[in-house]
Amino acid sequence: MEIEIISFGQITEFIKHQKIDIAGITDTETFKQYIENQFPALKGMKYKLALNKNIVQENTEITKKAVIAIMPPFSGG
Amino acid sequence: MSAERYNRQIILKGFGEEAQQQLLRAKVLVIGAGGLGCPSLQYLAAAGIGHIGIVDDDTISLSNLHRQILYTTADIGKLKVEVAARRLQEMNTQIGIIRHPIRLQKNNILDIVSRYDFILDGTDNFESRYLINDACALLNKPLIFAAVSGFEGQLAIFNTPDHLTPSTNYRDLFPVPPNKGEIPNCAENGIIGVLPGILGTMAAAETIKLIVKIGQPLTNKILNYNLLTQEQYTINISHGNSYTLPKTVDEFLNMDYQDTSEGPQGYIEIDASELVKLQQSESTILIDVREKHEVPVLDKQIYTQVPMSEFGPFLNKEFYQKQVVLICQHGIRSVAAAEALQEKYGDAKKIYSLKGGIVKWRDHFLKS
Fold it and tell me: How far is CA B225 from CA A4, B147, B232, in A?
């Protein structure tokens, strides 16, 4: 499955804008497992996924040419 | 109302006299008169919002001035609320400015928020942001949310339904706050002055759009802004199911907003003189938890370097000292490190964190 990954804030320090093409990632839950294994720093952080610009609230099927955003919370002012 | 003052926006197609009257009737509370709050306040006041409340308990310091543009060098040490209110009133004599020189807490926020129609959150910490979110959700007040980190910002409108989605709130994005030190703040991470200027101005624009019902406000959306690329990425927010909001005042008062003044903590926050006393004991280890590139560089013979990014592996090791003093730039990450060590050792070691960090006790560190 071809997935474009974008990230925000401090997550960009270790997950750059990239495209991956890996068989077996068919839903957001398997994507989450994959990305946390690839980038263990993510495991200890609060973040939210958005699939094709929609916040992921439950396991969601990933269809072709998906864009997944990884967003941490900001508090600064 | 002087129509001439607002002439250039009244003549705007799609705005007009009625929109100006709506602004004049609106009551907006701006929480935090800092990097985000200053530009928000300036444009809201200039636009003719009739009642503007300002909440902030902080005083102006030199390091605020590169981004908090309501203040001058002569204002250092004064209350932000007082200086901001005076300057805004000078700018627009036709509106009411209400000063709230307090820190919002569970026991005072509902009273203050209930007096306003729209709430703009320009605070700088997660404790306040969750407190404000839950209070606004409980009182059903539209919340304009702006936050910055590094070169990026986030902007959203909560507690406001649109034609597609019932209202959402911050917990639909992040159900619970991050742990202390997990996300660096401006004091820790740095901030370019113009960034909160942009986000604060955008937050003022969203507030005006909400009040006069024009355009497409960011209801149930979060906009991510990147200053370095000028890119914006907007994400639709839907309801999450992994949190519970307080539904009554009693439930709200029983929530834990990690107010450090509440409840016992296992570690002790100390000042530089107590640091000196502890330092004299053989059984004390001084740990600098800043990253290796940070300045000033401290004497490695005295201060053991364990950057927060390497703190996890460090927790698996053992050391003989019974007293641990943790130090960082502002005393924020050192609290996170203190909590982690406290959790591991309980009463077996005494854990201390230098309150205010190296910046506060600069003279001590420069002479030693």
Answer: 19, 10, 5
